[in-house]
Amino acid sequence: DASDIEKGTYPYYMLKEIDEQPLVIRRLIEKYRNEQGELAIDENIVQAVKEADRLYIVACGTSYHAGLVGKQLIENWAKIPVEVHIASEFSYNMPLLSEKPLFIYISQSGETADSRAVLVRTKELGHKSLTITNVPGSTLSREADYTLLLHAGPEIAVASTKAYTAQIAVLAMLAAVAAKAKGMALDVDVTKELGIVANAMETLCDAKHEMEQIAREYLATTRNCFFIGRAVDYYVVLEGALKLKEISYIQAEGFAGGELKHGTIALIENGTPVIALATQEHVNLSIRGNVKEVVARGANPCMISMKGLDMEDDRFVIPAVHPMLTPLASVVPLQLIAYYAALHRGCDVDKPRNLAKSVTVE
Ligand code: G6P
């Protein structure tokens, strides 16, 4: 659809694609639903997942970060062990495989050479594969046994946004359907919860002014920036840091809150921005403890918490969503902060230096 790939009134594709996220989630709810309104995924795929003794997610970049969140979802809901691997590492340092592995390739483009190299290898070994991609007919889709589509529409900006959230949403639906297929009683109505997520995303997309303020206040001139989170927030801060690096060229790193003190805290100076996420009740106090540790060393903290877990002085509070689905909401402010930081620093948001949308060489 040609209208899908026009910027319209948007200055950059990235901003347009961030704003499309609620729509993409709603579209996915429609696409993966049967006539009875229940979540539905191709029977063959569900069977392959159910039969596997372990899932191996293989991906690069942002898609790898979506895979980490997928592990959390699948292990919690479907109780199937999941390993997540960086494609370029897997090729040369293959882990010991289980007896009945299923390989899941996550790739927006479906063309990433590093991921394809692993697919070729695992096919040679006779293992089944599923590709989760935005591009029907792409190489990884054609070469795998099964495909699940992201239905996110063309993603033009080099920095991936809507494909990441679509990947997580598809993985959440797969986890829920697999749980049901295994006869487990899942007390989550995933379709309903994703609808709540879409509404929350809309609210977050409306917070552009606040995110611009944060970018201006914390990131206008800084040389570096740290992101911290615990549990699933850790996976999201890895993505938040990657977004910031990719488009603003600020040296940004995501860390597990508790790991900072084991080395990286040495880098904290007066005024170093530390963006923290707190969306998980069981680690709410401990991540706040980590923020205190960096503040004591002079850091400039920016706490982004979820409604219900918020405390005085938090910089921004995101609407409450299901605790397993928080990455879909919490990543939006991080995407917007990266966007505005890049904008303020005069960077080409859609076409960052040294990067390509899809890397077709190993
Ligand atoms: C490139 C892009 C990244 C992307 C990665 C994986 O490096 O610049 O934004 O996350 O490839 O791409 P894929 O299409 O496989 O998801």
List the keywords:
362 residues, 10 strands, 44% helix, alpha/beta, five-stranded parallel β-sheet, binds 6-O-phosphono-alpha-D-glucopyranose, 13 helices, single chain
Structural features, described:
- The longest helix has 20 residues, at 162-181.
- The protein is 44% helix and 15% strand.
- The protein has 362 residues and is α/β, with parallel strands linked by helices.
- Helix 2 (21-31) packs parallel to helix 8 and helix 2 packs antiparallel against helix 9.
- The protein has a five-stranded parallel sheet with strand order 2-1-3-4-5, with helices on both faces.
- Bound molecules: 6-O-phosphono-alpha-D-glucopyranose.
- 6-O-phosphono-alpha-D-glucopyranose is lined by residues 60-63, 107-109, 112, 115, 158, 160, 355-359.
Indicate the proportion of strand residues: 15-25%
Separation, N- and C-terminal Cα atoms: 31 Å
Q: So how many helices?
A: 13
**Structural class category:** alpha/beta
Rg over alpha carbons = 20 Å
User: Outline, from the CA principal axes?
Assistant: globular
Associated small molecules: 6-O-phosphono-alpha-D-glucopyranose
Number of distinct beta strands: 10
Share in helix:
40-55%
Reading the helices and strands in chain order gives HHHEHEHEHEHEHHHEHEEHEEH
- State the low-pLDDT regions, or none: none
How would you sum up the major sheet?
5 strands, parallel
Task: Summarize model confidence as the mean pLDDT.
Answer: 96
Strand order of the largest sheet: 2-1-3-4-5
